[in-house]
């Protein structure tokens, strides 16, 4: 009876340990990647009853059962808690920004709708963040990149590449849209005003360039079908180069201050535009070509693993 009770405590300890709240990440590890894994917590909880009560050492079957219980609990969707500090920061920033914009009273009235929308955006971002920092980064740190296209394909490298490719499709194709929307709103409300104001001030600095340095004519480029339908008014001459504007506005301290101020505003606006365009290109690639790329990659891995291993060098 005593032996059966002790064995029951030993088998129950990992499950109880896994239900405890995770300890906060230490300094220098905000994502908690170096936190104690569930198996280590389960092993520590398992050894405690054995040490205190003097239980009989478990057999090989019991150890295998303990490992299976720990793995099942770690992969249970009910107990899985992804680590998403950036997504949490976006949620808190959005809530603070909305509260400061509409006021606390209006926020309380529409709190379910606002919080519900922000939580769903946070969930979409958390999917990508958790996949990167809890799956991709630890796996690459442990196994490197030798599984991508190895000379000799094994079961391990084939499974690693295939699972990574298929999971990337399901996770990235939907979530990159959310990232594109966020950066587009950020560029509209932050980058665009900076570009407009900074551009107007920069044009005033360009007017100080001496006329003896005429601008360079713009070469006409062949127009495509959309450009012919929606023609744009292009300037006949390029604006002065950055070096010319700097040389023309670095005489007096007031001119130098204006150059730094307007240049900083325009630089922030242009940087915001570049980031938005980069995110849009990434979204276009993911939406149009990622699926084709991953299907071709899985096909190459399958041919390499089953039909032609190793590839001729």
What's the layout of helices and strands?
Elements: H1 2-18, H2 38-53, H3 60-74, H4 85-102, H5 104-109, H6 111-143, H7 155-206, H8 225-229, H9 242-248, H10 253-307
What does this structure look like?
The chain is mainly α and 313 residues long. Among the domains are: 1-18 and 37-80, no CATH class; 145-211 and 237-313, no CATH class. Helices cover 72% and strands 0% of the residues. Mean pLDDT is 74; it is low at 1-57.
Characteristic key phrases:
313 residues, 0% strand, mainly alpha, extended, disordered N terminus, 72% helix
Contiguous helical run count: 10
Helix and strand run: HHHHHHHHHH
Which stretches of 5+ consecutive residues score pLDDT under 50? 1-57
Specify Rg, calculated over alpha carbons. 29 Å
Q: What does the main sheet amount to? A: none
Portion in helices: over 70%
Question: How many E-type strands?
Answer: 0
């Amino acid at each position: 009876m005593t032996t059966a009770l002790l064995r029951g405590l030993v088998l129950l300890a990992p499950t109880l340990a896994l239900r405890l709240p995770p300890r906060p990440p230490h300094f220098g590890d905000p994502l908690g990647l170096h936190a104690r894994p569930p198996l280590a917590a389960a092993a520590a909880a398992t050894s405690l009853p054995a040490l205190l009560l003097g239980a009989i050492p478990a057999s090989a079957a019991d150890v295998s059962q303990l490992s299976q219980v720990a793995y099942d609990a770690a992969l249970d969707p009910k107990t899985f808690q992804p680590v998403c500090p950036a997504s949490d920061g976006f949620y808190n920033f959005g809530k603070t920004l909305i509260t400061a914009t509409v006021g606390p009273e209006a926020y309380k009235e529409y709190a379910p709708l606002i919080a519900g929308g922000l939580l769903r955006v946070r969930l979409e971002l958390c999917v990508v963040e958790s996949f990167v920092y809890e799956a991709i980064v630890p796996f690459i740190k442990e196994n490197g990149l030798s599984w991508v296209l190895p000379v000799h394909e094994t079961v391990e490298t084939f499974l690693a590449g295939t699972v990574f490719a298929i999971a990337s499709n399901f996770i990235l194709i939907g979530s990159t849209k959310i990232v594109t929307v966020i950066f587009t709103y950020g560029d509209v409300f932050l980058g665009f005003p900076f570009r407009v104001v900074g551009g107007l001030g920069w044009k005033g600095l360009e007017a100080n360039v001496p006329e003896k340095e005429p601008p360079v004519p713009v070469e006409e480029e062949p127009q495509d079908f959309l450009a012919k339908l929606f023609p744009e008014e292009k300037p006949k001459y390029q604006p002065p180069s950055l070096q010319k504007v700097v040389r023309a506005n670095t005489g007096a301290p007031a001119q130098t201050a204006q150059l730094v101020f307007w240049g900083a505003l325009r630089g922030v606006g242009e940087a915001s535009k570049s980031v938005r365009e980069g995110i849009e290109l990434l979204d276009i690639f993911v939406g149009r070509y990622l699926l084709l790329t991953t299907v071709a990659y899985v096909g190459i891995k399958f041919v390499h693993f089953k039909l032609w291993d190793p590839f001729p060098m």
